[in-house]
Amino acid sequence: MSASRLLAGVAAALAPSLDNHLALFGPLEPHDDLMVAIERAGLAGRGGGAFPTATKLRAVAAAGGLPTVVANAVEGEPASGKDRALLRVAPHLVLDGAVAACQAVGARDAVVAVSHESARERAIVETAIGQRHARDGRIQLRTAAVPGRFVAGEETALVSALSGREAKPTLKPPFPSERGLDGAPTLVANAETLAHIALIARFGPSWFRGAGTDDAPGTALVTLGGAVARPGVYEIELGARLDDVVDRAGGATRPAQAILVGGYFGRWVTPADARELRLTPEVLGAGAIAVLPADVCAMSECARVLTYLADESAGQCGPCVHGLRAIADELSSTGRGVRRRRLEELAGLVNRRGACRHPDGAASFLLSALEVFAEEFGQHAKSGRCGRQDVSVLPLAARPRA
Amino acid sequence: MKALRLNPIACDGRGLCAELIPERITLDEWGFPIVDGTPLPPSLERHADRAVAECPMLALRLESVRPDRVSTRGRRRPK
Fold it and tell me: How far is CA B52 from CA A177, A188, B18, B56, B61, in A?
């Protein structure tokens, strides 16, 4: 189940220099028909949406005009660290993927976008770009930093930020593939997705499918956190069972109450269901997994997450602004016990009513919490408390507002 | 066929639309429109036109839809 493709340099304990990169992976040759190779590989986006990458490339190539490429390593999700880890250990793989994507769609430049907080990763990428000299032909590579807000990684918000506007989502359509950065058709691809493209361009779709399952081919980076023995970023084969993946991080440090899969837009899974759940790109989202121990108050944890998501609303769409705050307030009233039906009603009121998926993700998180933590929420409703510790296990960003 | 589409970013919850076409638009508890984006029957088209024209934020519009591909939030990603 373990696999070292993207993270091969870690296994070999190599510095992320161009020489080491070429020794590990060999040179990137121009590809005749990369889109077909990516389609055959069955690559799905690793930034959260799990959208078929080949479809996205085709849309950009077909849009007309000179397109451009954005490597999205903003990673606003506080429970995720995999894109930053990838930039630290394999910056050239991400850059190769950006170059290959440029060649596939006919773009001449690509920008690697990180958050302001990722100064170290940005410096590593800058150094890597400097090492590549004329290797990339006429394709220009650069980096950019945007505010480290949760929504800043959403593709339209990122395009806005890179265009000098506020890092807030815009209405789709138009999709960035139609009209993106400075009006150009724009491929916004997650950094990890591009790194997979770099490997597909070298070794082909059959090789790519040599890991994972028919339905969920390849490997994926996951960020394991919460109450696990060795929190960090791991590369897994897709289709792996959730409980096996948690074991990669040394397993849970104390009995688990539930496991969060897919970060704060994801869902809670019981330990029993974790033995059945196969991790696909759709289930993984951006790949954040966190273990909540049985002795920690889930309602307090969920209240903190929803308060965070309410704070991180871009503030543009009424239902998201008012609805997420109402959910956070309701969840924070652990003393009198939350009203389950009210929370279900609020989830329905916010779902699919924003310009982006922010309210949908919050609703998904909430509804799965209501299901998985039904017993604990019931205790709160009955006696005002659950007897568990009110401590914070899930990572929440205390990021400065930019 | 035509269907109502809301731009939730532009909308600031004035609520005129819900008065002009209550058959398709209701207001949530915060005063923001909940839009039924299913295709409009001819009998409602005039009301829909009126609601679109009266929105002070230009947040409402009519979109041509195929009856078999109805979404409440704009069209899907291009295929």
Answer: 28, 33, 11, 9, 5
Topology of the domain comprising A298-383: de novo design (two linked rop proteins) (1.20.1440)
Q: Which two tokens stand for residue A346?
A: 């609020």
Range list of H helices, A232-339: 242-248, 271-274, 281-284, 298-311, 318-332
Contact A165/B at CB under 8 A: no
Q: Which amino acid is at B38?
A: T
CB-CB under 8 Å, A355 with B9? yes
Residue in A with minimal Cα distance to B75: A173
- Work out the burial of residue A337: count CB atoms within 10 Å of its CB; fewer than 13 is exposed, 13-18 middle, 19 or more buried: middle
CATH number for domain A8-208, candidates 3.40.50.1970, 3.40.50.2000, 3.40.50.11540, 3.40.50.300? 3.40.50.11540
> Collapsing DSSP states into helix, strand and coil, what is residue B52?
helix
Crossing angle of helices A91-105/A34-41, nearest 10°? 120
Give the Cα separation of A148 and B10 in Å (integer): 24
| Cβ-contact A220, A279 below 8 angstroms | yes
* Mean per-residue pLDDT of chain A: 94
A55, A177, A354 member nearest B8 (Cβ): A354
Q: Are A159 and A176 in contact (CB under 8 A)?
A: yes
Counted residue by residue, chain A has a size of 402
A176 neighbourhood in chain B, CB within 8 Å: none
Torsional class of A75: left (φ above 0), alpha (ψ -120 to 50), beta (otherwise): left
Tokens found for residue B5: 């589409």
DSSP A81: -
Residue A329 scores a pLDDT above 50:
yes
At residue A229, the pLDDT reads 97
Cβ atoms of residues A264 and A361 within 8 Å:
yes
Q: What is the ipTM of this complex?
A: 0.90
pLDDT tens digits along A176-186 = 999 999 999 99
| A352 close contact with B: CB closer than 8 A | yes
- Residues 8-67 on A with a CB inside 8 Å of B are 51, 55-56, 59
All structural domains of chain B: 2-64 (3.30.70.20)
Our CA-based measurement puts residue A21 at a distance from the nearest CA of chain B, in whole angstroms, of 35
Which residues 9-68 on chain B approach chain A with CB closer than 8 angstroms? Answer: 9-13, 28-32, 34
